[in-house]
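Purpose: get a first structural picture of the assembly so the mutagenesis plan has something to point at.
Setup: two entries, given in the order below. No constraints added.
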Amino acid sequence: MNKVAEQVEATPEQIRDQQLYRSMGLTDHEYQLIKDDVLHRLPNYTEVGLFSGMWSEHCSYKNSKPVLKKFFTKGKHVVKGPGEGAGIIDIGDNQGVVFKAESHNHPSAVEPFQGATTGVGGILRDIFSMGARPIASLDSLRFAEPKTDADKYFIQQIVAGISAYGNCIGIPTVGGDTAFDDAYAHNPLVNVMSVGLMDLDKIEVGAAAGVGNSIVYVGHKTGRDGINGASFASFQFDSEHESQRSAVQVGDPFEEKLVMEACLDVINNHAEALIGIQDMGAAGLVSSSAEMGSKAGGNGMELNLDLVPQREAGMSAFELMLSESQERMLLCVKAGHEDEVLQVFADRGVNAVVIGHVTEGHQYRLLHHGKLVADVPVDSLAAQAPVYHRESAVPEHLKHADAHQYQPQIANPTATLKQMLGQLTIASKESIYETYDTQVQTNTVVAPGSDAAVVRIRHHDKALAITTDVNGRYLYLNPRIGGQMAVAEAARNIVASGATPLGITDCLNFGNPEKPDQFYELDQAVMGMSEACEKFEAPVISGNVSLNNEYDNVPIYPTPMVGMVGLIKGIDHITTQDFKQAGDLVYVIGKTDAGFNGSQIQKMQTGQIFGQLFDFDLDYELKIQHLVTKAIQAKLLQSAHDISEGGLITAIAESTFGRQLGVELASDLTVADFFSESQSRFVVSVPQDKQAAFEQLVGSEAYQLGKVTDDNHFFVQASDGYFDLDSDKALAIWKGALACRLK
Amino acid sequence: MKFAVLEFPGSNCEMDLYNAIKDIIKEEVELVSYKQESLAGFDAALIPGGFSYGDYLRSGAIARFSPIIPALQQFASSGKPVLGICNGFQILTEAGLLPGSLQKNVSAKFICKDETLVVNNNHSLFSSEYQKGQLISLPIAHGDGNYYCDQETLKSLIAHDQIVFKYTNNPNGSVDNIAGIVNQQGNVLGMMPHPERAVEDVLGSSDGKGVFQSIVKHIKSRGVIYE
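Result (C-alpha cells, whole complex):
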C-alpha cells in the first residue's frame, strides 16, 4: 500500500476530547446525541463522518423541515410529492412530468466552472433516477454587477460550466433567469432546474428492500474530490476562509451520458430486476445507501468498501463514504438478477459492481480491509436526524420601513427608458443563452427570450411551459408578500405562454437559520409561496434548500427560486411575448398602481432598495391570469407578456424587440407609472378583427394603448410626457448591455 | 429505402435525425451502433451530432477508430450517400472521408442560434431540392465549427464545386464562410448546421427538409446499389 496516502485516524477518545467532530460540522449537542442516544458508545472516526454528512442541512433539512411542512403539496394530479429524488405530476396519456431544482451555490463560489457543471449533472441524475428522460434544463443565476475582470471571469466560467455540461449530455437548456445585485457579491446563486418525461407505469423509487438483494455501485470511480461537500455546503463563508477548493467536485458529462442511458435501459427494459435506484449526490455513498436502506424500512445493509471502484490508492473508509465524486448511482438489484443488470452497464462501458447486500436486522454496517469500520442503526443516519425549530424575529430593516412609495424623478422619459433598458437585470441575456444548446432533442418550440420556455411533447398535441423566477428585492422588503409574488410571477409567465400551472419546484436560498431575523425571512417566504401555490393550484412537488448564504454576517436577499411547469393543451395555444405585425392593437390587462419600493427604477435612481413593499392581491392576480388564459384559448391574442421588473414601458419595449417592430401608444398614466412594478398585469396584442371579441371578454380590466407599427419608431405618450426613440436604438441598448459589460 | 443513423458513445442528436427521417421524411430508418462492422442493407448513412467520447482529445478523433468506421469508408467508396452533421462532420474529417478539419470557434465559445446559409451548389445529391443561391435558415450548435483547410485544398474545393453551403454571416471563423462540403465524388457531405432541427415549422424552420428530400430523390432516381 502507498505509505504516503495511508492516514492515521483520530481515535474515538481523541475525537471526544479534542472535539474533532466540530470541524466536520457536528455541534456538541449532536455529538452527545450520537454517543448517548444512538450508539451508546463513542463513535469512531468513520462513524462521525457518516453522521456529519447525513446530519448536515444539505442532507437532513434539519433547520428547514418544520418550515417545509408548511408547503402546499396536494393536488389531484400529483403522483409523487416532495421526498423522492424529484416530484411527478400526471399530464394524461400515461405520461408524467418530473421536475426538481437544485442549488450549487457554495461549490460555484469557490470554483465556478466545476461548481456549475456538477450542479447540472446532479439535478439530471435526480430526474433520470425516477425513470424519466430529462427533456429540458433551466438555470436561475444571481450575481453582483460585474466590476472587475475577476467578476467577469467568474460569471463567464459559471455560464461556460453550464454550457459545457448540458450541451455535451444533449439536454437542451431552454430557459432560466439571471439578475444582478450586489447582495450576491460573495454568495452568487447557481440554481439548476431539470424537467423529465416518463411513462407513469415505470416509476422508480430510491428504496432497498428484501434481504439478500444486492447493492450495486454504478459509474465513475470514487476519488478524493468533494469529500464531505454536504457539510461544506452548509457552512457560511467569511473572509478568513477563502480557500475550500478541495470540497469541490469535477464533472464529466460524457460519463453521465453513458450512465444515464444505461440506467434508463435498466429501468425500462429490466424492471423486474430493479428494486430501487438513487443518485449518489450530496454526502455520496453514505447518503444514497442510508436513504435507500431507511426508506425501504425493516432491513439493514452491509457494504464492503474494498469493492468500491477507486481512483486513488489508500482511501480511508471516511473518504470513500463521504466523497462526492460525480456521475455515480446506487442500485438495489433483486438477488439472482445481478449479472443481467451488470451486463447492461458493461455493454456501455460503465463501471458496475456489487458492493453489498440488504441484510437482516436494522444495522448499517461497513467493512473495510476486513474490519468492521461502522455499525450504526440505518434509520439514525437518515430518518432520525435531529430537527431544529429555530427562533424567528422581525429583521431590523422591516421594523421601521416607510409606508410611502418611492416617487421616481424623471426629467427626460426617453433617457430614463434608455438607462432602464441597459440595466443588466433588464437587458437581453442572449450573450449567456446563445452558448447553451437550446434545441437538441428537437422539441423546443419557444427558446430562451420569451416569458416561459415551451417544449412540445412529441406525438401528442400538447406542450410544457417552463419558467424560473424570483425577485429577491421584493422579499427583502416583505418576505411573505415577496414569496407570493415569486410564485405569481412564475404563474404569469406560464399563463402568458398559453399554459395553465401544474406545479412548482424551488430552491430556497437564504441566510443563516440560527439567526432569528434570517430565519424569519425563510419562514415567512415559505408561507407566502405556499399561499400563492394554493391559490394557483400549483403544488410544490420537489425542491432544495440552500441556507447560510451569508458573508461576514451579511445575508443575501431572501431568494426562493420558483421553478414552475405548466401544461399547454393544444400546440396552437402556444403564445410568445413578441408583437407579431403592424396594425395589431396593444393593451395592458390589469390595474397600474404605485409599485416602486423594491423596483428596478428605485434601485437605478437611488442605488438602494427601501420602504414597505407595494400591495399585492392574490385574488385579483388569479382573476387577471384567468382572463389572459381565456383570451388565449379563444385565439384572440397575438402576443402576451408578463409585466415585471422595469414596469409597463419595459414590457412594451421587450415586446417590440423580437420582430423589430415599433409602437404608437398613448395613455393617461404618468411617465413614472410606466415604471411601476405593480403586479397582476400583462401587455398583449390583439388583431384588429378580434378587437370586439377581446374587449367583450376582458371588459374593464383591459386598457387600449394604441397600435403596433413597422416604422422603426417607438413612441409612447404619457399624461405628463412621452417616450420617443428609434426602435433599433432601443434594441441595440437592450441587446448590447450585458455582452458589453462581460467583455 | 432505408437510412442508417450511426450511434457513438456520446452522440446526442441521433434521435433527432431518426425522428426527422421517420416522422417527417417518412422513410425507413434504423440506429446502428458504433460496434457494428457492416452497413449492409442501408441506402444512406447519417452521422449525428453530439459529443462522441465527450470530444475528449479532439472532437471526432476517438470515434474515428470505432469498428463501424471501416464499413462506413467502404459504404462511401461504393458511392452511397453519407451525411455527417456537426460532430458527424468532425468524424468524417478525422476519418479522412472529407478534407480539412474543424477547429474551435473564433469566439472560443459554443454558439447555438439560427444562421442564414446560401446554397452554393445545388447539383450535389444533398442539395438538388434547393435553388442555387437560395437563402435558407438552419440552426447551428457547436463549439468546434470553424472549418479550416489550406489554400491549396480550398482552391481544389472551389475547382470541383465541393462547397455546398456557405454562411452569410460567418459565426465561427470558417475559411471562405464554409458551412458544408462534399467529397470529390459528391456522395459524402459534412455540414456544421443542423438540417434535422429544421424540418417542422413549429420548431421555427422547415428549411432543412431539402437536404433529406434531395437524398431520397437521388436514391429513388438512381435505383438500388447492391454490395
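The first strand of chain A starts at residue 78 and ends at 80.
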